[in-house]
Amino acid sequence: MSHQPAPAPLLIACALGIEHFALRTGDRGARRRGAPVRWGAGGPYSLVRTGMGPKAAERSVTRHLAGPAAADTAVLATGFCAGLAPGMHPGDLVVAEETRDPRGTVPCVGTELLVKELVRLLPGRTVHTGPLTGSDHVVRGPERSALLATGAIAVDMESAATLLAAVRTGDRPVAAVRVVVDAPEHELVRIGTVRGGISAFRVLRSILPAFFEWHRSLLLPRR
User: Fold this and answer.
1) Structure confidence by residue, pLDDT tens digits, 75-120
2) What are residue 122's phi and psi, to 5 degrees?
């Protein structure tokens, strides 16, 4: 009797406790035998909190992808971000076409499918696509304009480091989806204390099914 190969796992990485909490409370996947690995539409997945900042993200992702068992793992970075373009609002979604930081640029896979699934899940929510840039600090004020001038549409501290670490450990599909928590006209002092932060939290809590469909699509035969 032939055995089907085990489906490749998915690693979903976020940085902050509030991001991890939002994703956990939105998680409807079932744990198997109490293991930390859950199951989505495309197979097993792990939800990992890396810690804040690019160095923490790189260390955590590199550690989780070490060893032959993780060779085919797909990686998706998620959480909150700062929008750079005028007209962006808290709760908007950003699907990266690529992530970039001073060390390099990483192309993302399956952007169109992610956009389609997010629009289906959250009708009425604006989904932006474009480059997502990395920073080692919280970006405010005039620095937003400088980053926007590079062509980036949003910035966060971990996505670029997460995806760079992922592709450096092996040839694997990667993506990044972020929820805008503040924007040029809507700067927040603290996440979760004003309406914009609460709106972004609710959106982040709702988007795991889109990640599962993205992961499932990677396993389908290519025509």
Assistant:
1) 999 999 999 988 898 899 999 999 999 999 999 999 999 999 999 9
2) -130, 70
**Dist CA 129 CA 97 (whole Å):** 6
Strand partners, 78: 177
Quick one: which of 64, 98, 77, 94 has its CA closest to 158? 77
**133 with 152: CB under 8 angstroms?**
yes
> What are the Cα distances from residue 182, in Å, to 57, 100, 104, 111, 201?
21, 20, 25, 22, 12
CA atoms within 13 A on the CB side of 176: 37
Q: How far apart, in Å, do the first and last CA atoms of the chain sit?
A: 28
For the beta carbon of residue 198, count every other beta carbon within 10 angstroms: 15
Give the pair of three-digit tokens for residue 4: 């089907």
Which amino acid is it at 130? Answer: G
DSSP class of residue 215? H
- Contacts of 171 by beta carbon, 8 Å cutoff, 6+ apart: none
210 CB-near residues (< 8 Å, 6+ apart): 114, 117, 118, 120, 121, 177
Q: Name the residue type at position 178.
A: R
pLDDT in the model for residue 115:
96
- Collapsed DSSP state (helix, strand, coil) of residue 140: coil
